[in-house]
Amino acid sequence: MKLKEVLATIGISALTTFAVVWGFNSYNKYNKTFAGQTEGTIPNNYRLAGLMNGETNNGGAPDFTQPSVAALPAVVHIKTKTNAKQVTNNLPRMRQNPFSDFFDDDLFNQFFGGGRINIIPEQQASGSGVIISDDGFIVTNNHVIDKADEINVTLNNKKTYKAKVIGADPSYDLAVIKIDASALPFLLYGNSDDVKIGQWVLALGYPLNLETTVTAGIVSAKARSIGVNKGKSGSTAVESFIQTDAAVNMGNSGGALVNTDGKLIGVNTAIASPTGYYSGYSYAIPVNIVKKVVDDLIKYGSVQRGYLGIQFGNAADMSAADKRSIGIDEETYDGIFATDVITDGGAFAAGIRKGDRIQKINGEEIVSGGELQEQVSMFKPGDKVPVQVLRGKKAINFVVTLKNKAGNYDIVRNDSKIDALGVELVNLDLKKAKEYGIDGGVIIKKINKGAINDQTRMKDGFVVLRINDEPVKNADDMRKIIGNQNAFTISGFYPGYDGLYEYPITLEEQ
Predict the structure, then answer these.
(1) Is 225 annotated in the active site?
(2) Cβ proximity of 257 and 265 under 8 Å
(3) Each residue of 231-263: pLDDT tens digit?
(4) Which of 192, 253, 368, 377 is catalytic?
C-alpha cells in the first residue's frame, strides 16, 4: 500500500511508501542535522580537485567522484516498524442504556452503536537519513519515522543500530533521531542561501530498497512551495524547497542533497510525479532551515518558531477587489504584500501596516511567500529581525521583535505527550468547579486523532479530575503528572451524569 499525496494538477509524493508485513517492502527517507558542528570527518584522501560549481575533469565532463566519497559514509538507511493496532470507527456511544439491568454498557454498545473494531496490520517502511554529528545524531523527514514503534539505522558499512526519536515537527517535515555510537563520519553543513540556480548537486539515499545510490542534477528553482506539508499542518506548514532534476524515488526521503564540495545543502523530501515515481523534479528542504529546526529539537524538544504577525499574499494571485481592500494599485502584478497585520503581533508594534510590500527580511530580498517563510523560520521568538517594506514609493526599515504562536516571547517546551493524546484542553471555570463541589479540573473540549480516540470511548466534555490518583486542577497539572509516563489512567466525570469514569491510556515510547 503506497501513501501518496496528489495535489493540484500534478502529483506531489512524499518519498515514502509503506507495506504490511505480508505485503511488499516499502521505503522512506530521513534527514537529520546537528547545529553545533565544528568540523567533519571527511576522508583523508578527499580533496577538492577544482570541481566547485560543476567544473570539469580533464575529459571535459563533470566529475563527482570526490564529493560522493565524502558524503556516502554519512548517509544511512532507516527502516521502521509500526505494530498492528486495534481501532474503532469512533461512532458516538449511546449514553443511555434502557437495558442496563440486563446488559452492561460495554456489551450494549458493542451491539447498538458502540463502534466497529478494525485491525490495522503491522507495517514496515524504509527511507534515508544523514548523520550530522560524530556521536550519532541523524536528521530525516518526519514522515519517515512518524508513528513508528521501532526504528533501525544501517550505516554505509552495514552496521545496524536501534534509534530513538529526539524530536520531530510536521510543519517542516523534519525529525531528529539518535543512535548510540561514536566516532561516526558526518556531513558538514553548507549554506543554502549561497545555492545558485543551475549549479550541480548530488542526491544520496536508499531508493527503492537499493543500497546507497548517488544521482546528479542541477538546481532548477529555489523557494518552491508545493503544498505537500499543508495537509498535515495547515497554515503552520513551512515550504521553501530547493527544486532539482537529480533523480530521487521512494526511499530517498530524508537523504542528502550535497554540493560539489560534498557539503549538505538540503534534505530530500518529495517529488512531483503523476505516478509516485521520479518524473523529472525533486524537492529538498534547504539546510539553513534544517540547521535551525534540528538545533531547536535537540535543545528544547520542539521548534521555537517566531511569527511576524502578518498575513501575506502575492499580488500575482490577488483579485482586483483584494488589491483594493489593502490599498494597492489594481495594476500591481508582483510582490509580497501584508494583507492583514495582527494588532498584538510584532509587525504591528514595529509599525508595519496592511498594504505594505515586504521587500527584505534580514537583508535578503523577498519575491515569494516561500522566501518570506524561509527567512522568518531562521529566527525564534524574542529575536529582533530587520524588515524593509515599500509603502507607496517610500522604502521604510523596521525592526520586528518576533513572538511565538501564543503572542509572547516564551520558550515553547515539548508537549508531545499531550499532543499524543489528541485532545484540546480547557481549564474548568472556577465558578463551575464550585458548582460541582470540586477544586478544579480540565475539560476535554474536543477529541481529535490520537491515543484517547484510538484506545477509549471518552466523549467531548469529559472533565478530568485525577491521573493515576493524583489530583488535576488545571492543564499544567495534567502535563506535569503525565510527564514522561507512557501508561496511566485518566479519571473524571461527565457533567449531568452520575459516577466516575476511568480510562487507561498507553502511549508509544517517545
Answers:
(1) no
(2) yes
(3) 555 456 788 899 999 999 999 999 999 999 999
(4) 253
Q: Domain span at residue 432?
A: 416-506
Q: Of the candidates 223, 255, 190, 171, which has an alpha carbon nearest to the alpha carbon of residue 53?
A: 190
pTM of the model: 0.70
Q: Give yes or no: residues 266 and 144 share one domain.
A: yes
Asked whether residue 410 is domain-assigned, the answer is no
C-alpha cell at 63: 566529475
Q: Taking phi first (over 0 means left), then psi (-120 to 50 degrees means alpha), and beta for anything else, what does residue 244 get?
A: beta
Q: Is 77 a catalytic site residue?
A: no
Distance CA(5)–CA(7), nearest Å, equals: 6
Annotated active-site residue in 134, 146, 173, 356:
173
What is the tens place of the pLDDT at every residue in 360-411? 999 999 999 989 988 998 899 999 999 999 999 999 999 999 998 778 887 7
Question: Catalytic pick from 126, 143, 295, 477?
Answer: 143
Count of the separate structural domains present in the chain:
4
Tell me how far apart the alpha carbons of residues 464 and 447 are, in angstroms, rounded to a whole number: 13
Q: Residue 47: what pLDDT?
A: 33
Share of the chain above pLDDT 90, in %: 54
